[in-house]
Every structure is written in structure tokens, then in C-alpha cells.
Amino acid sequence: MLGNDPDTKEQLRADFEFTRLAIPRRVYTQVHFDIMAEALIAIKAKAHEIKHGYKITWEPPILRHFQASLAAVE
User: Fold this and answer.
1) Structure pTM?
2) Could you say which DSSP state residue 61 is in?
3) How far out from the chain centre does Cα 5 lie?
């Protein structure tokens, strides 16, 4: 989300990386939250097996984190 360095065009690196989980109010039941929690726990348990990430292949000039195109890093 930091974008690219204006001089080098290289991706700026953040000190921390966070994931935001936004949940609309009055839409989901407790069962939905239980399923999400189980999925997140399973992902965390397998985190050491995840070797690939994603890279941005295209980005708009502004608000790139909403419209960017991604490709798996091999």
C-alpha cells in the first residue's frame, strides 16, 4: 500500500504487514464467525508450508490496493 519509490520505482517496504478483516454489521451469524475462525486457525497451522506470495502485475495510478492485478510468485 506504500507504493513505489518515485526515484527508483522499486516497491517501498513497510516495517509491518497486517491483514484487515472487515465485517459488515448485522449480516453474519455466530456460525459464520465460527467457520471463519476455524479457517484462520487452519491457515495459521499451515503457514510454514506456504512458500509463495503474490506480486503486483498492474496497478492504477491511485488507490492501487483496490484495483491492482496480482500474479503468484513462483
Assistant:
1) 0.53
2) S
3) 20
Beta strands (DSSP E) in 1-74 are: 54-58, 69-72
CA pair distance 40, 34, nearest whole angstrom: 10
Apex CA 1: angle with CA 46 and CA 49, to 5°?
A: 10
Taking phi first (over 0 means left), then psi (-120 to 50 degrees means alpha), and beta for anything else, what does residue 3 get? left
> Is the per-residue pLDDT at 38 higher than 90?
yes
Cell of 61: 495510478
The pLDDT, as a whole number, for residue 33 is 93
CA 40 to chain centre: 14
Domain boundaries, the chain: 1-74
**Statement: residue 15 has pLDDT above 80:** yes
Mean pLDDT value of segment 34-50: 92
